[in-house]
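Notebook entry, structure prediction.
Reason for the run: the old model in the group folder had no record of what sequence produced it. Starting over properly, with the input documented here first.
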Amino acid sequence: MKLALPTAALLLISSAALADLAPQDIISKWQDYYARFGGAMTVGESEITGSTTRYRDISAEMTIEGSTSLYYIEYITVESNADGSLDISFSPNSSVAIDHSTNEYPFNGQASYDLGALALHAQGTPEHIHYTFSAPVITMHQFQSQPDLDFTTAIAMQGLEGTMQTNTSDGLMAQTAQIDMAALSLKITATPQGKPPTYVDMQSENVSIAYDFSLPEVLDTTSLQAMLFPDGAVFGMALTAGATTTKLDQQTADSKGLFTFTQSNGELTAAFAENALSYGLTASNATLALANTPAQPVDFTAGFSRFHWGITLPVRKSETPAPFALTLALEGLTLGPEIWAKFDPDTTLTQTPASFAFSVNGTAKLFVDLFDQTALTALRGAPFELRSLSLSALSLDFEGMGLTGDGDVSFNNDRLDPMSGLPEPSGVLDFSVNGALGLLDKIGRLGMIEPMVIIGAKGALGMFATPNSGPDSFTSRIEFTEGGHISVNGQQVK
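New structure, fully documented this time:
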């Protein structure tokens, strides 16, 4: 059975099919992109043969905070199709030169790219361009030199596929992309002057990068802060990876050390909007190992089921406090037998996996822009003023001991402690702990800590904690009151 499409849908399809992109539209959009960041893209001679246009000697230059990057592509070929779309290919000879010699930490770098296998398809209109692309492999080699240290980097992206959408309207430039790779490899060699090199080798499967951003039409390129976080900009990015192995091989004159990290999957996120910059890092089912030749006491193996770190920070100075947050979690931490054998050879402890989680949030007032190095250097005192702090989650599970905590504290920056210079706090923190006495007994039997230290720890627990209803269970409330007073379970300690 045939279905009839509505007339409006037919008109939309027809309009999209008839929309033409000219080769020069693509070049002009790329030139506009560099111009927004204070850079410039120039094109040499162009050759037109039938429906094919070849642009030669393409270069793009950009300078940020005294660091100049100069990109060069030998040629770009654009094929015009009957449906108004374009197929774009690149020469295998592309390069970039970086000159950072005028800054406080000078370096120079050169890199070469092989984009010869990249196939890029574009369709739409100059204001709304949709790209699809693929490549069996893209490689990059980079050399960077700075005083007393040289770096070489090799990157290979295999099985590359993706889409990208660019839109320009109402003075904004927006871009959304999804990039998938079957495999990604990264190899770094760091060679200090007069010393053996250090090697980093990372191999990862099923890597995906998704991002979207929106930039204003006019950007301030006078500082790194303004370039990274322009007013009105919105940015979000997520990089996910499957099975990954990273090896760090470090050598000295008479020894070698190999550090290995593996994970089943992981994620790196970044976002910026208004006055909030966020980062996140997650790794799952990971193992760590350090092996030295000759063997050293610090050789170890360890692992965890999940690690997560996240942070949100304000980046601009403001007359009003801005929110911040910090999260850290480590689940299912295990240590290898070689570590346990050093301090628990008789298996006094259960040696079961441990977990830890910590999450705080609050507000702070920045006196200077976070990435304004000149203002930070000239500043006397702290660059921020803490206004409030909440312990939204605290938990620890180790060898049968469980610790939890939460609470809220605000700070009066008009009243500073004369001894520490810190603002006066007010608020309450609540904690509960189970199994602490049993853990102290186990630690005492290990013989690594003096018995009087264990007795003192038990005494402190009895002084600052109140027994709960269950055995080996305690609670503790810490109160901060006006005048800088601190009380623990109703007993004033300051």
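Summary: The longest helix spans residues 23-36.
The old model has been moved to the deprecated folder.
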